[in-house]
Amino acid sequence: MHRRAVSWRWPSAVTAPSQSMQFLELFVQEVSAQGTLWAFGCWLVALLVLAAAPDREGVRPRRRGASFLVLLGVALVPATVLCRSQKMSLADDLALFGSVVSGIGVVVLLGLIVFDVALARLSVGVPRIVQDVLVGVTCLLVIFSTVARAGINLTQIVATSAVLTAVIGLSLQDTLGNLVGGLALQLDRSIQVGDWVRIGEVTGRVAEIHWRYTALETRNWERVVIPNNVLTKAQVNVLGRRTGQPLQWRRWVYFNVDFRYPPSTVIDLVQNAIRDQPILNVAANPPPNCVLMDLCDSYGRYAVRYMLTDLVPDDPTDSVIRTRIYFALSRAAVPLSIPAQAVFVTQESGERSEAKRQSDAAERLRVLAQVELFRDLSTEDLESMSRSLQRSPFARGEVLTRTGSSAHHLYVIRRGRVSVRVGEGDLQTEVAQLTAGNFFGEMSLLTGEPRSATVVAIDDVECYRLDADAFRRVLERHPELANKVAAVLAERRVALLATREVMDEEKKKRLLASNSSDLVDKIRDFFRIA
Ligand code: CMP
Q1: Strand, coil or helix: 93
Q2: Does the pLDDT of residue 5 top 50, yes or no?
Q3: How far apart are the first and last CA of the chain?
Protein backbone atom coordinates (compact mmCIF):
# COMPACT_ATOMS: atom_id res chain seq x y z
CA MET A 1 0.00 0.00 0.00
CA HIS A 2 1.46 3.33 -1.04
CA ARG A 3 0.83 6.35 1.18
CA ARG A 4 1.48 9.86 0.00
CA ALA A 5 3.09 12.21 2.55
CA VAL A 6 0.66 14.62 4.15
CA SER A 7 1.11 18.35 3.60
CA TRP A 8 2.58 19.13 7.03
CA ARG A 9 5.55 16.72 6.58
CA TRP A 10 8.33 17.05 9.10
CA PRO A 11 11.02 19.46 7.73
CA SER A 12 14.22 17.62 7.01
CA ALA A 13 16.48 20.15 8.66
CA VAL A 14 15.27 21.73 11.82
CA THR A 15 17.25 24.68 12.91
CA ALA A 16 15.25 25.62 16.00
CA PRO A 17 17.19 27.34 18.74
CA SER A 18 16.06 24.98 21.45
CA GLN A 19 14.24 21.69 21.96
CA SER A 20 11.10 23.34 23.44
CA MET A 21 10.92 25.91 20.66
CA GLN A 22 11.17 23.08 18.18
CA PHE A 23 8.41 21.17 19.94
CA LEU A 24 6.16 24.27 20.00
CA GLU A 25 6.73 24.91 16.32
CA LEU A 26 5.90 21.33 15.47
CA PHE A 27 2.84 21.46 17.70
CA VAL A 28 1.50 24.54 15.89
CA GLN A 29 2.16 22.89 12.51
CA GLU A 30 0.39 19.75 13.64
CA VAL A 31 -2.59 21.59 15.05
CA SER A 32 -3.14 23.51 11.84
CA ALA A 33 -2.55 20.45 9.65
CA GLN A 34 -5.05 18.29 11.53
CA GLY A 35 -7.61 21.05 11.90
CA THR A 36 -7.51 20.49 15.67
CA LEU A 37 -8.34 24.09 16.52
CA TRP A 38 -11.32 23.97 14.26
CA ALA A 39 -12.57 20.74 15.86
CA PHE A 40 -11.93 22.11 19.36
CA GLY A 41 -13.82 25.32 18.52
CA CYS A 42 -16.74 23.34 17.14
CA TRP A 43 -16.79 21.26 20.30
CA LEU A 44 -16.90 24.36 22.56
CA VAL A 45 -19.70 26.00 20.53
CA ALA A 46 -21.67 22.74 20.47
CA LEU A 47 -21.37 22.36 24.24
CA LEU A 48 -22.66 25.91 24.74
CA VAL A 49 -25.60 25.42 22.35
CA LEU A 50 -26.53 22.04 23.83
CA ALA A 51 -26.26 23.32 27.42
CA ALA A 52 -28.73 26.10 26.62
CA ALA A 53 -31.20 23.70 24.93
CA PRO A 54 -33.78 21.67 26.89
CA ASP A 55 -32.52 18.24 27.91
CA ARG A 56 -33.87 15.71 25.39
CA GLU A 57 -33.75 11.99 25.80
CA GLY A 58 -30.61 10.36 24.37
CA VAL A 59 -28.74 13.65 23.82
CA ARG A 60 -26.48 13.37 26.86
CA PRO A 61 -24.81 10.01 26.02
CA ARG A 62 -24.26 11.06 22.39
CA ARG A 63 -22.81 14.40 23.50
CA ARG A 64 -20.52 12.56 25.91
CA GLY A 65 -19.36 10.11 23.21
CA ALA A 66 -18.73 12.90 20.69
CA SER A 67 -16.81 14.98 23.26
CA PHE A 68 -14.65 11.97 24.00
CA LEU A 69 -13.77 11.62 20.30
CA VAL A 70 -12.94 15.31 19.83
CA LEU A 71 -10.82 15.40 23.00
CA LEU A 72 -9.10 12.17 21.99
CA GLY A 73 -8.18 13.84 18.69
CA VAL A 74 -6.82 16.86 20.61
CA ALA A 75 -4.91 14.65 23.04
CA LEU A 76 -3.28 12.78 20.17
CA VAL A 77 -1.61 15.99 18.86
CA PRO A 78 1.20 16.10 21.47
CA ALA A 79 1.69 12.34 21.05
CA THR A 80 2.02 12.80 17.28
CA VAL A 81 4.51 15.63 17.73
CA LEU A 82 6.54 13.48 20.10
CA CYS A 83 6.66 10.60 17.61
CA ARG A 84 7.55 12.96 14.82
CA SER A 85 10.42 14.50 16.75
CA GLN A 86 11.71 10.97 17.27
CA LYS A 87 11.25 10.33 13.56
CA MET A 88 8.91 7.46 14.24
CA SER A 89 6.73 6.35 11.32
CA LEU A 90 3.82 5.96 13.79
CA ALA A 91 3.45 9.75 13.72
CA ASP A 92 1.57 9.73 10.37
CA ASP A 93 -0.85 7.06 11.58
CA LEU A 94 -1.51 8.89 14.84
CA ALA A 95 -2.14 12.15 12.97
CA LEU A 96 -4.54 10.43 10.63
CA PHE A 97 -6.36 8.66 13.45
CA GLY A 98 -6.64 11.92 15.44
CA SER A 99 -8.14 13.77 12.43
CA VAL A 100 -10.65 10.97 11.80
CA VAL A 101 -11.89 10.65 15.41
CA SER A 102 -12.21 14.39 15.98
CA GLY A 103 -13.98 14.67 12.58
CA ILE A 104 -16.50 12.01 13.63
CA GLY A 105 -16.99 13.75 16.99
CA VAL A 106 -17.72 17.06 15.25
CA VAL A 107 -20.23 15.42 12.87
CA VAL A 108 -22.11 13.83 15.80
CA LEU A 109 -22.22 17.17 17.64
CA LEU A 110 -23.48 18.96 14.51
CA GLY A 111 -26.14 16.25 14.19
CA LEU A 112 -27.27 16.95 17.74
CA ILE A 113 -27.46 20.69 17.09
CA VAL A 114 -29.40 20.27 13.85
CA PHE A 115 -31.88 17.54 14.95
CA ASP A 116 -32.19 17.99 18.70
CA VAL A 117 -31.95 21.77 18.94
CA ALA A 118 -32.75 23.56 15.68
CA LEU A 119 -35.38 21.24 14.17
CA ALA A 120 -36.81 20.40 17.60
CA ARG A 121 -37.34 24.10 18.20
CA LEU A 122 -39.16 24.34 14.86
CA SER A 123 -41.20 21.29 15.97
CA VAL A 124 -39.91 19.25 13.04
CA GLY A 125 -39.56 15.68 14.30
CA VAL A 126 -37.10 13.54 12.30
CA PRO A 127 -37.29 9.82 13.19
CA ARG A 128 -34.30 8.71 15.19
CA ILE A 129 -33.30 6.12 12.62
CA VAL A 130 -33.17 8.76 9.84
CA GLN A 131 -31.02 10.98 12.07
CA ASP A 132 -28.67 8.07 12.75
CA VAL A 133 -28.40 7.17 9.06
CA LEU A 134 -27.65 10.77 8.02
CA VAL A 135 -25.04 11.20 10.76
CA GLY A 136 -23.58 7.76 9.93
CA VAL A 137 -23.30 8.56 6.19
CA THR A 138 -21.69 11.94 6.95
CA CYS A 139 -19.20 10.19 9.28
CA LEU A 140 -18.30 7.80 6.45
CA LEU A 141 -17.76 10.74 4.09
CA VAL A 142 -15.52 12.41 6.68
CA ILE A 143 -13.51 9.18 7.09
CA PHE A 144 -13.11 8.71 3.34
CA SER A 145 -12.14 12.31 2.63
CA THR A 146 -9.67 12.50 5.57
CA VAL A 147 -8.05 9.24 4.56
CA ALA A 148 -7.98 10.37 0.92
CA ARG A 149 -6.22 13.59 1.94
CA ALA A 150 -3.55 11.43 3.53
CA GLY A 151 -3.04 9.76 0.17
CA ILE A 152 -4.90 6.52 0.85
CA ASN A 153 -7.60 5.48 -1.56
CA LEU A 154 -9.93 3.51 0.69
CA THR A 155 -12.54 2.90 -2.03
CA GLN A 156 -9.97 1.31 -4.28
CA ILE A 157 -8.59 -0.83 -1.47
CA VAL A 158 -12.03 -2.10 -0.49
CA ALA A 159 -13.01 -2.68 -4.16
CA THR A 160 -9.88 -4.51 -5.20
CA SER A 161 -9.35 -6.63 -2.12
CA ALA A 162 -11.72 -9.58 -2.45
CA VAL A 163 -10.94 -10.87 1.03
CA LEU A 164 -11.50 -7.50 2.68
CA THR A 165 -14.73 -6.99 0.75
CA ALA A 166 -15.95 -10.42 1.84
CA VAL A 167 -15.03 -9.78 5.47
CA ILE A 168 -16.71 -6.38 5.52
CA GLY A 169 -19.70 -7.76 3.64
CA LEU A 170 -20.20 -10.63 6.06
CA SER A 171 -19.73 -8.56 9.19
CA LEU A 172 -22.10 -5.88 7.92
CA GLN A 173 -24.75 -8.39 6.85
CA ASP A 174 -26.68 -8.28 10.12
CA THR A 175 -26.11 -4.59 10.68
CA LEU A 176 -27.34 -3.70 7.19
CA GLY A 177 -30.30 -6.04 7.69
CA ASN A 178 -31.19 -4.17 10.88
CA LEU A 179 -30.72 -0.81 9.24
CA VAL A 180 -32.84 -1.63 6.21
CA GLY A 181 -35.44 -3.31 8.45
CA GLY A 182 -35.62 -0.22 10.68
CA LEU A 183 -35.96 2.10 7.68
CA ALA A 184 -38.66 -0.12 6.17
CA LEU A 185 -40.63 -0.10 9.45
CA GLN A 186 -40.47 3.68 9.52
CA LEU A 187 -41.28 4.18 5.86
CA ASP A 188 -44.28 1.86 5.61
CA ARG A 189 -45.41 3.12 9.04
CA SER A 190 -46.35 -0.40 10.10
CA ILE A 191 -45.23 0.48 13.60
CA GLN A 192 -44.54 3.87 15.07
CA VAL A 193 -43.07 5.23 18.26
CA GLY A 194 -45.90 5.25 20.86
CA ASP A 195 -47.74 2.21 19.43
CA TRP A 196 -48.65 -0.64 21.78
CA VAL A 197 -47.48 -3.91 20.25
CA ARG A 198 -47.36 -7.60 21.11
CA ILE A 199 -44.45 -9.57 19.65
CA GLY A 200 -44.42 -13.19 20.79
CA GLU A 201 -44.65 -13.12 24.56
CA VAL A 202 -43.77 -9.46 24.92
CA THR A 203 -46.30 -6.64 25.08
CA GLY A 204 -45.11 -3.06 25.34
CA ARG A 205 -45.10 0.45 23.96
CA VAL A 206 -42.63 1.27 21.16
CA ALA A 207 -40.20 3.67 22.81
CA GLU A 208 -37.61 4.03 20.06
CA ILE A 209 -36.84 2.79 16.54
CA HIS A 210 -33.07 2.83 16.38
CA TRP A 211 -30.96 2.00 13.31
CA ARG A 212 -30.10 -1.38 14.85
CA TYR A 213 -33.06 -2.25 17.09
CA THR A 214 -36.54 -1.30 18.20
CA ALA A 215 -36.99 -0.77 21.94
CA LEU A 216 -40.24 -1.65 23.72
CA GLU A 217 -41.16 -0.47 27.22
CA THR A 218 -43.40 -2.91 29.04
CA ARG A 219 -45.94 -2.32 31.80
CA ASN A 220 -43.48 -3.97 34.20
CA TRP A 221 -40.92 -1.23 33.48
CA GLU A 222 -38.72 -3.44 31.35
CA ARG A 223 -37.03 -2.28 28.17
CA VAL A 224 -37.02 -5.01 25.55
CA VAL A 225 -34.61 -4.52 22.67
CA ILE A 226 -35.57 -6.33 19.46
CA PRO A 227 -33.18 -6.29 16.42
CA ASN A 228 -34.95 -4.72 13.44
CA ASN A 229 -34.31 -7.67 11.12
CA VAL A 230 -36.09 -9.96 13.64
CA LEU A 231 -38.98 -7.53 13.73
CA THR A 232 -39.41 -7.45 9.96
CA LYS A 233 -39.75 -11.25 9.90
CA ALA A 234 -41.90 -11.70 13.05
CA GLN A 235 -45.65 -11.30 13.43
CA VAL A 236 -46.30 -8.01 15.20
CA ASN A 237 -49.72 -7.30 16.73
CA VAL A 238 -50.37 -3.56 16.98
CA LEU A 239 -52.89 -3.21 19.82
CA GLY A 240 -55.96 -1.01 19.69
CA ARG A 241 -55.40 0.33 16.18
CA ARG A 242 -58.18 0.20 13.57
CA THR A 243 -58.36 2.41 10.48
CA GLY A 244 -60.48 5.49 11.06
CA GLN A 245 -61.33 4.50 14.63
CA PRO A 246 -60.14 5.89 17.95
CA LEU A 247 -57.50 3.95 19.88
CA GLN A 248 -59.27 1.25 21.89
CA TRP A 249 -58.52 -2.36 22.63
CA ARG A 250 -61.00 -5.11 23.42
CA ARG A 251 -60.57 -6.89 26.75
CA TRP A 252 -62.26 -10.02 28.09
CA VAL A 253 -63.14 -10.61 31.72
CA TYR A 254 -64.32 -14.14 32.52
CA PHE A 255 -66.51 -15.41 35.35
CA ASN A 256 -68.51 -18.57 36.08
CA VAL A 257 -72.04 -18.99 37.39
CA ASP A 258 -73.62 -22.38 37.96
CA PHE A 259 -76.51 -23.82 35.97
CA ARG A 260 -79.19 -23.04 38.57
CA TYR A 261 -79.32 -19.48 37.28
CA PRO A 262 -80.67 -18.82 33.77
CA PRO A 263 -78.08 -17.27 31.44
CA SER A 264 -80.48 -14.51 30.39
CA THR A 265 -80.83 -13.40 34.01
CA VAL A 266 -77.08 -13.45 34.58
CA ILE A 267 -76.39 -11.56 31.34
CA ASP A 268 -78.99 -8.88 32.10
CA LEU A 269 -77.78 -8.42 35.66
CA VAL A 270 -74.14 -8.05 34.68
CA GLN A 271 -74.74 -5.99 31.56
CA ASN A 272 -76.96 -3.50 33.40
CA ALA A 273 -74.47 -3.16 36.23
CA ILE A 274 -71.64 -2.43 33.80
CA ARG A 275 -73.51 -0.05 31.53
CA ASP A 276 -75.38 1.75 34.30
CA GLN A 277 -72.59 4.11 35.32
CA PRO A 278 -69.61 5.02 33.10
CA ILE A 279 -66.34 3.35 34.13
CA LEU A 280 -63.03 5.17 33.72
CA ASN A 281 -61.14 4.02 30.58
CA VAL A 282 -64.06 1.93 29.28
CA ALA A 283 -65.39 3.14 25.92
CA ALA A 284 -69.09 3.99 25.73
CA ASN A 285 -69.12 3.03 22.08
CA PRO A 286 -69.37 0.11 21.47
CA PRO A 287 -70.79 -0.46 24.95
CA PRO A 288 -69.49 -3.33 27.11
CA ASN A 289 -71.49 -6.53 26.85
CA CYS A 290 -71.80 -9.89 28.54
CA VAL A 291 -71.94 -13.21 26.70
CA LEU A 292 -72.23 -16.85 27.65
CA MET A 293 -69.03 -18.36 26.31
CA ASP A 294 -69.38 -22.00 27.22
CA LEU A 295 -71.43 -24.56 29.10
CA CYS A 296 -69.00 -26.49 31.28
CA ASP A 297 -69.40 -29.38 33.74
CA SER A 298 -71.63 -27.64 36.23
CA TYR A 299 -71.50 -24.00 35.33
CA GLY A 300 -71.84 -21.51 32.53
CA ARG A 301 -68.69 -19.64 31.55
CA TYR A 302 -69.42 -15.97 30.87
CA ALA A 303 -67.31 -13.12 29.59
CA VAL A 304 -67.68 -9.37 29.81
CA ARG A 305 -66.13 -7.77 26.74
CA TYR A 306 -65.30 -4.10 26.81
CA MET A 307 -63.16 -1.57 24.96
CA LEU A 308 -60.23 -0.18 26.92
CA THR A 309 -59.45 3.41 25.85
CA ASP A 310 -56.13 3.87 27.67
CA LEU A 311 -53.96 0.82 27.08
CA VAL A 312 -51.88 1.30 30.24
CA PRO A 313 -54.33 0.46 33.07
CA ASP A 314 -55.50 -2.88 31.67
CA ASP A 315 -55.50 -4.96 34.86
CA PRO A 316 -56.92 -2.18 37.09
CA THR A 317 -59.82 -1.67 34.64
CA ASP A 318 -60.45 -5.43 34.48
CA SER A 319 -60.54 -5.35 38.26
CA VAL A 320 -63.23 -2.61 38.31
CA ILE A 321 -65.28 -4.70 35.88
CA ARG A 322 -64.88 -7.81 38.08
CA THR A 323 -65.94 -5.82 41.13
CA ARG A 324 -69.06 -4.63 39.32
CA ILE A 325 -69.84 -8.23 38.32
CA TYR A 326 -69.33 -9.44 41.88
CA PHE A 327 -71.64 -6.85 43.41
CA ALA A 328 -74.33 -7.14 40.76
CA LEU A 329 -74.48 -10.89 41.30
CA SER A 330 -74.41 -10.66 45.10
CA ARG A 331 -77.27 -8.15 45.09
CA ALA A 332 -79.35 -10.63 43.15
CA ALA A 333 -78.16 -13.47 45.43
CA VAL A 334 -76.50 -15.21 42.47
CA PRO A 335 -73.25 -16.75 43.70
CA LEU A 336 -70.21 -17.22 41.50
CA SER A 337 -69.81 -20.91 40.79
CA ILE A 338 -67.68 -23.22 42.84
CA PRO A 339 -65.50 -25.46 40.65
CA ALA A 340 -67.20 -28.83 40.22
CA GLN A 341 -64.18 -30.69 41.52
CA ALA A 342 -64.14 -28.87 44.83
CA VAL A 343 -66.10 -30.43 47.65
CA PHE A 344 -67.16 -28.12 50.43
CA VAL A 345 -68.18 -29.94 53.56
CA THR A 346 -69.79 -27.90 56.27
CA GLN A 347 -71.26 -29.66 59.20
CA GLU A 348 -74.62 -27.94 59.37
CA SER A 349 -76.12 -28.54 62.79
CA GLY A 350 -79.32 -27.13 64.24
CA GLU A 351 -77.32 -25.07 66.74
CA ARG A 352 -75.04 -23.70 64.07
CA SER A 353 -77.90 -22.41 61.91
CA GLU A 354 -79.69 -21.03 64.97
CA ALA A 355 -76.52 -19.18 66.03
CA LYS A 356 -76.15 -17.79 62.49
CA ARG A 357 -79.78 -16.67 62.41
CA GLN A 358 -79.51 -15.00 65.80
CA SER A 359 -76.37 -13.06 64.95
CA ASP A 360 -77.98 -11.90 61.69
CA ALA A 361 -81.16 -10.82 63.52
CA ALA A 362 -79.10 -8.98 66.15
CA GLU A 363 -77.20 -7.10 63.43
CA ARG A 364 -80.43 -6.02 61.74
CA LEU A 365 -81.83 -4.83 65.06
CA ARG A 366 -78.63 -2.93 65.79
CA VAL A 367 -78.79 -1.11 62.45
CA LEU A 368 -82.50 -0.25 62.82
CA ALA A 369 -81.99 0.96 66.39
CA GLN A 370 -79.34 3.43 65.11
CA VAL A 371 -81.91 5.16 62.92
CA GLU A 372 -83.14 8.30 64.67
CA LEU A 373 -86.59 7.90 63.13
CA PHE A 374 -87.21 4.53 64.79
CA ARG A 375 -85.74 5.45 68.15
CA ASP A 376 -89.12 5.39 69.98
CA LEU A 377 -90.29 2.06 68.52
CA SER A 378 -90.51 -0.94 70.82
CA THR A 379 -88.15 -3.92 70.44
CA GLU A 380 -91.03 -6.05 69.09
CA ASP A 381 -91.76 -3.46 66.39
CA LEU A 382 -88.11 -3.27 65.45
CA GLU A 383 -87.88 -7.07 65.40
CA SER A 384 -90.89 -7.40 63.17
CA MET A 385 -89.52 -4.72 60.83
CA SER A 386 -86.06 -6.32 60.81
CA ARG A 387 -87.55 -9.56 59.51
CA SER A 388 -88.60 -7.75 56.31
CA LEU A 389 -85.17 -6.26 55.68
CA GLN A 390 -83.32 -7.43 52.56
CA ARG A 391 -79.53 -7.19 52.39
CA SER A 392 -78.55 -4.94 49.48
CA PRO A 393 -74.84 -4.36 48.69
CA PHE A 394 -73.55 -1.86 46.08
CA ALA A 395 -70.07 -1.29 44.62
CA ARG A 396 -68.36 2.09 44.79
CA GLY A 397 -69.66 4.32 42.00
CA GLU A 398 -72.94 2.46 41.52
CA VAL A 399 -76.26 4.30 41.46
CA LEU A 400 -78.66 3.24 44.24
CA THR A 401 -81.61 5.41 43.21
CA ARG A 402 -81.96 7.56 40.13
CA THR A 403 -83.87 10.85 39.84
CA GLY A 404 -87.27 10.33 38.24
CA SER A 405 -87.45 6.54 38.60
CA SER A 406 -90.39 5.00 40.42
CA ALA A 407 -89.64 3.75 43.87
CA HIS A 408 -90.19 0.58 45.79
CA HIS A 409 -87.79 0.66 48.69
CA LEU A 410 -86.49 2.60 51.61
CA TYR A 411 -82.78 2.02 52.30
CA VAL A 412 -81.07 1.99 55.68
CA ILE A 413 -77.28 2.25 55.43
CA ARG A 414 -75.38 -0.41 57.36
CA ARG A 415 -71.89 0.41 56.11
CA GLY A 416 -70.23 2.93 53.74
CA ARG A 417 -71.14 6.39 52.45
CA VAL A 418 -73.51 7.59 49.74
CA SER A 419 -73.78 10.91 47.95
CA VAL A 420 -77.21 12.48 47.28
CA ARG A 421 -77.11 14.44 44.02
CA VAL A 422 -79.45 16.56 41.94
CA GLY A 423 -79.07 17.57 38.30
CA GLU A 424 -77.90 15.67 35.25
CA GLY A 425 -74.51 14.49 33.99
CA ASP A 426 -71.66 16.91 34.62
CA LEU A 427 -74.04 19.43 36.13
CA GLN A 428 -74.83 17.22 39.12
CA THR A 429 -74.59 18.92 42.54
CA GLU A 430 -74.20 17.04 45.79
CA VAL A 431 -76.81 18.03 48.38
CA ALA A 432 -75.81 15.64 51.14
CA GLN A 433 -73.68 12.67 52.10
CA LEU A 434 -75.26 9.96 54.22
CA THR A 435 -73.47 7.32 56.29
CA ALA A 436 -74.24 4.29 58.48
CA GLY A 437 -77.47 4.74 60.46
CA ASN A 438 -78.98 7.15 57.87
CA PHE A 439 -81.81 6.24 55.56
CA PHE A 440 -82.89 7.40 52.12
CA GLY A 441 -85.54 6.65 49.54
CA GLU A 442 -88.31 7.58 51.99
CA MET A 443 -89.67 10.45 49.86
CA SER A 444 -90.95 8.32 47.02
CA LEU A 445 -91.82 5.34 49.18
CA LEU A 446 -94.05 7.45 51.44
CA THR A 447 -95.63 9.73 48.86
CA GLY A 448 -95.65 7.62 45.70
CA GLU A 449 -93.80 10.37 43.81
CA PRO A 450 -90.81 9.59 41.54
CA ARG A 451 -87.34 9.64 43.11
CA SER A 452 -86.31 13.23 43.91
CA ALA A 453 -82.55 12.70 43.73
CA THR A 454 -79.83 10.36 42.51
CA VAL A 455 -77.99 8.49 45.22
CA VAL A 456 -74.49 7.19 44.32
CA ALA A 457 -72.25 4.91 46.41
CA ILE A 458 -69.03 6.71 47.47
CA ASP A 459 -67.53 3.52 48.97
CA ASP A 460 -68.65 -0.08 48.70
CA VAL A 461 -71.95 0.26 50.51
CA GLU A 462 -74.11 -2.22 52.34
CA CYS A 463 -77.75 -1.32 52.91
CA TYR A 464 -80.85 -2.99 54.22
CA ARG A 465 -83.88 -2.52 52.01
CA LEU A 466 -87.40 -2.14 53.42
CA ASP A 467 -90.39 -2.43 51.13
CA ALA A 468 -93.56 -0.36 51.24
CA ASP A 469 -95.74 -3.13 52.79
CA ALA A 470 -93.39 -3.60 55.72
CA PHE A 471 -93.35 0.14 56.29
CA ARG A 472 -97.14 0.29 56.06
CA ARG A 473 -97.42 -2.31 58.84
CA VAL A 474 -95.25 -0.17 61.13
CA LEU A 475 -97.20 2.99 60.29
CA GLU A 476 -100.49 1.24 61.01
CA ARG A 477 -99.27 0.40 64.49
CA HIS A 478 -97.60 3.80 64.99
CA PRO A 479 -99.49 6.50 63.07
CA GLU A 480 -97.50 9.16 64.98
CA LEU A 481 -94.42 8.02 63.01
CA ALA A 482 -95.89 9.82 59.98
CA ASN A 483 -95.21 13.19 61.68
CA LYS A 484 -91.58 12.34 62.35
CA VAL A 485 -90.96 11.09 58.84
CA ALA A 486 -92.74 14.11 57.40
CA ALA A 487 -90.44 16.43 59.37
CA VAL A 488 -87.29 14.76 57.98
CA LEU A 489 -88.82 14.66 54.56
CA ALA A 490 -89.77 18.33 54.63
CA GLU A 491 -86.28 19.29 55.69
CA ARG A 492 -84.73 17.35 52.82
CA ARG A 493 -87.23 18.80 50.35
CA VAL A 494 -86.38 22.34 51.36
CA ALA A 495 -82.65 21.49 51.00
CA LEU A 496 -83.41 20.22 47.49
CA LEU A 497 -85.39 23.37 46.63
CA ALA A 498 -82.54 25.50 47.93
CA THR A 499 -80.25 24.05 45.27
CA ARG A 500 -82.57 25.40 42.56
CA GLU A 501 -83.38 28.87 43.95
CA VAL A 502 -81.78 31.26 46.40
CA MET A 503 -83.85 31.49 49.59
CA ASP A 504 -83.31 33.19 52.92
CA GLU A 505 -83.77 31.50 56.32
CA GLU A 506 -87.25 33.01 56.73
CA LYS A 507 -88.49 31.49 53.50
CA LYS A 508 -86.91 28.14 54.40
CA LYS A 509 -88.76 28.11 57.74
CA ARG A 510 -92.05 28.94 56.05
CA LEU A 511 -91.57 26.24 53.45
CA LEU A 512 -90.59 23.73 56.14
CA ALA A 513 -93.79 24.36 58.12
CA SER A 514 -96.10 24.17 55.09
CA ASN A 515 -94.34 21.14 53.65
CA SER A 516 -94.46 19.24 56.96
CA SER A 517 -98.23 19.41 57.34
CA ASP A 518 -98.78 18.70 53.63
CA LEU A 519 -96.55 15.69 53.79
CA VAL A 520 -98.24 14.18 56.87
CA ASP A 521 -101.53 14.22 54.92
CA LYS A 522 -99.83 12.85 51.82
CA ILE A 523 -98.24 9.97 53.72
CA ARG A 524 -101.43 9.06 55.54
CA ASP A 525 -103.32 9.29 52.29
CA PHE A 526 -100.84 7.14 50.42
CA PHE A 527 -100.81 4.44 53.06
CA ARG A 528 -104.54 4.86 53.72
CA ILE A 529 -104.16 5.26 57.46
CA ALA A 530 -106.40 7.34 59.68
P1 CMP B 1 -86.35 9.56 47.16
O2 CMP B 1 -86.86 10.78 46.52
O3 CMP B 1 -87.24 8.40 47.30
O4 CMP B 1 -84.99 9.13 46.44
C5 CMP B 1 -83.87 9.96 46.54
C6 CMP B 1 -83.58 10.15 48.01
O7 CMP B 1 -82.52 11.02 48.34
C8 CMP B 1 -84.74 10.80 48.67
O9 CMP B 1 -85.82 9.95 48.65
C10 CMP B 1 -84.17 11.12 50.02
O11 CMP B 1 -84.18 10.00 50.87
C12 CMP B 1 -82.76 11.45 49.68
N13 CMP B 1 -82.58 12.92 49.72
C14 CMP B 1 -83.12 13.84 48.92
N15 CMP B 1 -82.74 15.09 49.33
C16 CMP B 1 -81.97 14.93 50.40
C17 CMP B 1 -81.28 15.83 51.28
N18 CMP B 1 -81.33 17.15 51.11
N19 CMP B 1 -80.58 15.30 52.30
C20 CMP B 1 -80.51 13.97 52.48
N21 CMP B 1 -81.14 13.09 51.69
C22 CMP B 1 -81.86 13.54 50.66
Answers
A1: helix
A2: no
A3: 122
Amino acid at 36: T
| Cβ of 463 below 6 Å from ligand 1 | no
For ligand 1, is residue 267 a contact (CB within 6 Å)? no
Share of the chain above pLDDT 90, in %: 32
Residue 485 near ligand 1, beta carbon < 6 Å: no
Q: Which of 440, 456, 497, 508 to mutate to test the pocket of ligand 1 (most atoms within 8 A of CB)?
A: 440
What is the CA(375)–ligand 1 centre distance, in A?
A: 20
506 C-alpha vs ligand 1 centroid, how far in Å?
22
Phi, psi angle pair for 214, to nearest 5°: -115, 130
d(CA 510, CA 496): 15
Is residue 530 very low, low, confident or very high in pLDDT (cuts 50, 70, 90)? low
Q: How far is the CA of 238 from the centre of ligand 1 (A)?
A: 49
Q: CATH no. for residue 202?
A: 2.30.30.60
Instruction: Kindly state if the Cβ of 490 falls inside 6 Å of ligand 1.
Output: no
The span from the CA of 157 to the CA of 150, in Å, is 14
CA of 514 to the centre of ligand 1 (A): 18
User: Do 257 and 197 fall into the same domain?
Assistant: no
44-91 per-position pLDDT tens digit: 888 888 887 777 777 888 888 989 998 998 888 888 888 887 888 888
450 CA to centre of ligand 1 in angstroms:
11
Q: Confidence class of residue 480 from pLDDT cuts 50, 70 and 90?
A: confident
Domain containing residue 316: 249-331
For residue 337, being part of any structural domain is answered with no
d(CA 430, CA 423): 9
In a shared domain, residues 324 and 443: no
Domain total in the chain: 4
